Amino acid sequence: MILRSYLKYTFLRLSELPDHLVYCADENPLAFNAGLVTPFKSASLHFFADAPSPR
Fold it and tell me: DSSP H helical segments within 1-55, as ranges?
C-alpha cells in the first residue's frame, strides 16, 4: 500500500512538471522514473500498458 501511494503521488507530481514523463505517439503517458533504485543501484523505471478489456 505504501509503494502504491508513493508511485501515485510521484506520477501526479511529475505530470505537473515539464519533460518528466515519456509519452508515446498517441500522447498517453508511457513511462517515468520514480526515483527508486534496485539493490544494484539501477534506476527503477515504471511503464504503462493498457489493461485488457474484461470478458
Answer: 2-15
